[in-house]
Design a protein that fits this description.
The protein is mainly α. The protein has one domain. The chain has 13 helices and no strands. The protein is globular, with a radius of gyration of 19 Å.
Length: about 290
């Protein structure tokens, strides 16, 4: 019985890692958001920030998660990229539904014994919303870390690792968009497709360093100020939907679209939007497993 339970837990952790990993290849969709919606976020943050307190248990858990995430990134990055090129509206609305569908679960985390709609909660929400929307306006390729040599270049790689780590850890911050800002998105996709172990290895190491440097402050903030933190996170999450609209949905609308195109596209998009909401609600039922 115990063995069966452990096997089920292993498959569930790997499945959640798979979903999170595959979603990270979509600009506008945050791996951190998906982790919260799937109920694995707190466990991930805790296992990293308190890594040495339960070394064996944390290594086993993170290994399971990373295997699932790695399979998701490698196996679905090309497929999702292809789908976004061929049928951008239905796919974008599916992810939009998945993101919005998880907001009620996040809102529940803001409630306390004396909870109610406070002005401060609205302010924290607006701060999170403004931060993510502002990040979305940073021009892509603003910083270039794909070339260079010497100590300065490696220091820049470390800074890059910290930035990517923040995008991975913070809900609502799109890892794909941050890679675009850093001028690394195409190089990353090429490295994954070509299995460039050296490039991926160096970037992986600096990102892991960045994750270890950022998780403890984030965990402290979530434990010390849970209501305020989750209000900001909701702002992050809803703010990330703007990028999906701006970069995927709006450009997919033809300038000369006729009435028939609009009717077909709207119906299909509504269906995929509802499927996205349904999928995240169904997955959230396993959030406490």
């Amino acid at each position: 019985m115990e063995k069966e339970k452990n096997s089920k837990n292993t498959l569930l952790v790997m499945l959640k890692g798979f979903i999170i990993g595959s979603s990270m290849s979509v600009p506008g969709v945050s791996g951190g958001t998906m982790a919260i919606l799937l109920g694995i976020y707190d466990k991930l943050i805790g296992s990293i920030s308190r890594f040495t307190k339960d070394l064996k248990g944390n290594i086993i858990f993170l290994t399971k998660f990373c295997i699932g995430a790695g399979i998701g990134i490698i196996s679905l990055s090309k497929l999702i990229k292809w789908l976004l090129e061929v049928v951008p509206l239905p796919v974008s609305f599916f992810f939009l539904g998945a993101v919005i569908g998880g907001v009620p679960a996040l809102y529940k985390k803001t409630k306390t014994k004396d909870s109610g709609l406070r002005l401060s909660s609205v302010i924290y929400f607006l701060i999170g919303l403004a931060i993510v929307i502002s990040i979305g306006f940073i021009p892509t390729g603003t910083i270039s870390v794909t070339s260079g040599s010497g100590i300065g270049h490696y220091l820049m790689l470390l800074v890059t690792g910290i930035i990517i780590a923040l995008a991975l850890v913070l809900p609502g911050i799109s890892t794909s968009h941050m890679l675009l800002v850093l001028g690394m998105y195409d190089a990353m996709l090429a490295a994954i497709s070509d299995l460039n172990i050296v490039y991926l290895g160096i970037l992986g190491v600096v990102t892991v360093i960045g994750i270890f440097l950022t998780t403890r402050p984030i965990e402290w903030t979530m434990n010390k100020f849970p209501r305020q933190t989750y209000c900001v996170i909701i702002g992050f999450v809803l703010g990330s939907t703007w990028e999906i609209f701006r970069d995927k949905i709006i450009p997919a609308i033809p300038a000369n679209a006729n009435f028939s195109w609009w009717i077909t596209s709207v119906i299909i998009s509504i269906i995929t939007f509802v499927l996205g909401i349904s999928a995240i609600i169904a997955l959230s039922k396993f959030s406490n497993d």
